[in-house]
Every structure is written in C-alpha cells, then in structure tokens.
Automatic annotation (TrEMBL), chain B:
One of its GO terms (cellular component) is cytosol. It catalyses: 2 pyruvate + H(+) = (2S)-2-acetolactate + CO2. InterPro entries: Acetalactate_synth_ssu (IPR004789), Acetolactate_synth/TF_NikR_C (IPR027271), Acetolactate_synth_ssu_C (IPR019455), ACT-like_dom_sf (IPR045865), ACT_dom (IPR002912), AHAS_ACT (IPR039557), AHAS_small-like_ACT (IPR054480). SUPFAM superfamilies: ACT-like. Belongs to the acetolactate synthase small subunit family. This is Acetolactate synthase small subunit. One of its GO terms (molecular function) is acetolactate synthase activity. Coiled coil: none annotated. The lineage of its organism: Bacteria, Pseudomonadati, Pseudomonadota, Acidithiobacillia, Acidithiobacillales.
Amino acid sequence: MTSLTTTQNRPSPDLVEEDLTGAEIVVRALRDEGVEHVFGYPGGAVLYIYDELAQQDAVKHILVRHEQAAVHAADAYSRVTGKVGVALVTSGPGATNAVTGIATAYMDSVPIVVITGQVPVALIGNDAFQEVDTVGITRPCTKHNFLVKDVRDLASTLKTAFYLAATGRPGPVLVDIPKDITSHKTHYHYPEKISLRSYKPTLKGHPGQVRKAMQLVTGAQRPMFYTGGGIILGNASGELRKLVRTLGAPITNTLMGLGAYPASDRQFLGMLGMHGTYEANMAVQHCDVLVALGARFDDRVTGNLTKFAPHARIVHVDVDPSSISKNVRVDVPVVGDLQQVLLEMNQILAENGQRNDPQAMQAWWTQIEEWRQRDCLHYNQDDRIIKPQLVVQKLFELTGGNAIVTSDVGQHQMWAAQFYGFDQPRRWINSGGLGTMGFGLPAAMGAQVAEPDATVVCVTGDGSIQMNIQELSTCLQYNLPVKVACLNNHYLGMVRQWQEFFYENRYAMSYVDALPDFVKLAEAYGHIGLRADTPADVEPVIREALRLKDRMVFMDFQVDPQENVYPMVPAGAALSEMILV
Amino acid sequence: MRHIISILLENEAGALSRVAGLFSARGYNIEAMTVAPTHDPSISRMTVATRGSEEIMEQVLKQLNKLVEVIRVHDLTEGPHIERELMLIKVHAVGQDREEVKRLSDVFRGRIIDVTDRSYTMELTGTGEKLDAFIHALDPGMVIEVVRSGASAISRGAKAI
C-alpha cells in the first residue's frame, strides 16, 4: 500500500500500480475523502472492510453497540463539525437497524454517508442469510442510494456519495456493497471532482429576486425574521447576524435553527412554534413581512396553516426549491445557498443604505417588549421538588452556555431548547424532524468524538434514554466523558402532557413503571452515577459532574412528574392561541 | 385537472421505482405511467398521466426535479402536445359478429393483428378517450382481454422538452 501514489493526481499510464481489493478501495476512499472517524458495527458482509480498517490508523473506527447508534453518532459528528459523517454497518439487520438513524438524518438534512454490506451479488434476490433489499428500504429516506455491482464503479460511487451528501440540500446517502465486491480487485482512482448532468443545485440567488426581497424587507413596518436549520447547515450564521443587526429587526429561530442567532441578543425572541415563546409567536402573527431563511414551515412551527402570519407578505430563501410554497404561499421566493444569498443581501444593504422606517420600528419593538413582559417561560421553583426547567437553567449557567447539548425527544427536549441559550451554531444537536427517541446519547458520543475537549451534555428523559442505553458501553470503551442529564419524571412526559390536555387525564401507557436505578446502572457500565432528589441537590450534582472532566457521568434528576411544557399551541390551533402557564 | 408529465431520467436500475415511490409516498395520483429508453440509450423517457390542483402539480414537478437521477421534467399540458396510447384488444368473434367487429375496428382505424375461428385481436392507437370509446362501442360480453400502454406524449413544434 505504501508504494501507491496519492490519488489526488491521476497516475501516469506507464506507472504500474498494484490493483486494490474493494475493501482496500473503501478504506482508501475514506482516507482520500479526509474521513477521520467512522462509526460502525461489524458483521459477515463487511468483514473484508473491517479487516482493512484494522490494518491502518488514518481512519479511526468507533464500535457502537447498536447500528442505530452508529448512524446517530455519525449524524451528530456531522452536525458539530460540518463535515460528512460516516457509518459502516453490515447487511440485513445491520442495515435495518440503521434505518431509523438514516431517516433521522434525512428529515434534518444532515450530510452522512452510510456504507452497508450486502450479500454477494450472485445471492441477491435469493433470500440469502442476512439479506435485505437495503436500497429498496432506504430509497424514501435517503437523498440518494447506490448498490455497487462492479468493483470498478466503487471508488467513483463513493466519491459521488460524498458529493451528493454535502451539496445542495444536504442529506444521507447510502452505498450498499455486496461482499464479493469487497474482495474483487481493480485499479484505484479516486476522482477529484464529480459532475452529474441530472444534479445541479442552484446556489446563487437570482439577483432580481434578491433585490425584490430586500425591497420588501426594508419597506416593512413590522418585519420579522424566522430562520431554520438551513442557516446552520449552510454556515450562514455570520451573514445572518450581520443582516439582522443592520436592520435592527426581531428574529426567531426554529428548533433546528437555535444558535444561528445569539440567544443572549436583545433582538432574539426565542424559539417559535408549538412550544415557542409568546413574543416570538405573537410577532410572527402580527408582522407585515416575514423573512423565512432556511426554514420549511413545518406543522410544528406554523400551527393552523390557514391562520398563519395572516398579515404578512413572505420572503422565503431556501436551497431546495421544493421547500418553497410547499405549505405556505410565498410572495418572494429565492432559491439559493443561504450563505451566498445573505451575502448578496448584505451587499445590497451596504450599497443602497435603505433601512426600515425608524418610527415604525420603534412602535413595533414597543409592542414586542410588551409581549416579552408576559414572561411566558416563567416557572415556580419551591424547595421540595425539582422543576425540570431548573436543571436546564443550571446546566446553562454552570457550563457558561458553552456546552454542546444533545437531546432526545419529548418534554426535556423542549425545556432544553427553551432554557439553554445557544449563542453559537452547531452546539444544539437534536432530532427535530423525525423526533427520534434514543438519539441523544449516541449523538453525544458523536459530538464528543468530534470535539474531545468540549463539554458535551445529553439532556434526556427516563423514557428516551432507555432507547439506546447500551451505548454507555461505547462511552467506556472510547473514554467519551459525556454528561447525561436525565430529567426523570417517571413518565413519558410529552405523551402524558397530551393525555392531560386532550384525552381527559387518561394516562394510557405513559407511566414508565419499573425504572432501573440509573445511578447503579451507570456504575455497572463503569461510569459515575449521581442523583438529585431536591432542588438543593441540582447545582452540586452538576458541579460534581463537570468537575469529573474525564469521566462519563450520569445525572439522574428526580423532577416534578406533573410539570408541563408551556407555552403550548395545541395541534390545529393558530400560533397566537397559546396555552400559557 | 389532468396533466401529462414528461420526465427524462438516467437509464439506471432503480430510477423507475424512485419515481413511482415518490408518487406513492407523497400521495400523488398516477393514472398511467410509461417508460422506455430514448434514442440516447443512457436516458429513459417516462410519461406520467396524473391529476391534481395547481399547488399539487407544482410540488410534483419540484419533487421530481429533486430526484438525483432525473435530468428534466416538463408538464406537457402547459402547451400544445400530442398524446397517443396503444391498445391491444381481444374479442369473441363468431358468426355475424365477425363482420360487425371488423367494421367497428375500421371505423376506429384499428387493425386486426390476430385471428382465430372464434376471436379477433386488434391494435388501436389514439387518445385514451378514443380507446375508451371503442371499448364502449363493443358489447361488453365480447371482450376477452385488453392491454393498454398508458399515454405517451410529445410536444408540438420543432423543439424538444
């Protein structure tokens, strides 16, 4: 292998190269792609690839305990670094276990490449051992997928997979490789560039449309910015801040977009949507121009579509044309890369010096401050029982707001989003689109691998954490000092909340009986477990966990089982129809 | 409203099921779908007959365009176009019916392409409505089997889509 020239330059024809096996090609391609970490789980169909992985150390492999976790970890690794995450699993059950992770990444547009083993080509379609139609199963939840049937296609297919995953609207791409292909040999050439006639994402915004958008924005009496995960994925946070500050306009972020604009900034109104703040939702409902950037008008954001932003003319910028006018009719659509379009917008502002009418803006802000006075996130903490909000608030204070926070799905996710103020992008990692319980812990592992020195906290609940609890074992093997903060309310809290509000307090199967002792469980996995029973315990437990910098710590907070997430817009109601505390 | 959508896509394994899967996953209606390679064997052309509101059609076109293997998508119903469908139909034909079926086939510009002492098999092309009309013109008890290709369509004029 050492005799091989680097693949960045096509070798001259007279230079005779040794042919590589498919497995060698996979590992070489990962190296040439700059991949440093692969999350995976071995099995029969990928043994040749694992054999090669073990004989080098440029690409490090992290062995998870379940394939779903491998994909979540690769996903979070990507969300934190901005690079393409990579997962490697075997055929059959390896692939099907990975599907939840793939669908999670698909819904949140996260660029990952998933390599799956497949039975040998000759056995495909024969119901062979550990055979499943992986490309068939994953077709609706990948951006694209490939089955490689000829080793000569392998290198270029992998390159295409990385290219597709990372460009345009990003997403997961799967490459299914039959076992015999990994043993066949061919000449290795990793293409430097890929060009596909059928795939040409529009990156530069149409200048006329951008100008029109800026005219509408600066002419507004009550402008409102609403930005989503696209800003984070498109690394457009810097340009966004510049634009919003220049205009002095209010801004809200979606659940996926938190951190794009600093939570500590006065212009930031908090998250919008079903559990958004009163001021953010009211501002959306009353604005006259709504600027949607890298957001997709998801039902959890808009509430009742027919009553959404009734007074607003809407500007929508997105790299994916199919996101535009999908749910909400848009007045000025702009298709393009967020960073580029925002750059163009900032340039226009700098050139023409146009600003919103100061008097109108002052009146608008007075109105917003009035809404803000409502203090919609207020909660009453007594000295007996821990309010879950307090835990997140203390986590925020004691980490200085600098932690990477992952979450699972449910009430704790909403409290984390509401009470941990993110000032930077790529610090808040959660499953927004698919809402995958079990995401948090493996995501924290991926984040910790990406940033070994960062404080990584997984805010979770007693329900979600048990959906991938086996990963505590991975944390031990790789010394990943993840801090788990379990808001343990002995309920599937969000399910219970809906049952309380909409099913007349009939708590059908939402009580999690027979919970394990999480402290002992953490200890059994070789970690440290801490338990907080009263409000006075919260701060010391967090302090102790953070002090144990190099250890994985499981913090079990016994929180108020009856607490609900407020505000809440009931499904089907208008955004302004919030249930408040 | 009914729309005829032409799709040029890479002639690759799985491309057809990507398109079909998109329609079923997003709940779009498919009336008919035909696909075959074009004069460039690396490209297939698919014709989909579908129905939907203006908003849905906008999404159908955008979602089709988003598929990595799709090279071009065009709604032919936006302009003048020609639509044809092929039907092969096998009918009972004994006694005096033989003459009647033959006459009817001639009226519809069909061709009899297979004959037995008890049956005729005919070939007809035209719009879907014309083929429907032919079937309705026959006594329902006479029809043995029908196979239809689904609509193929092309725009009028000198330009390709």
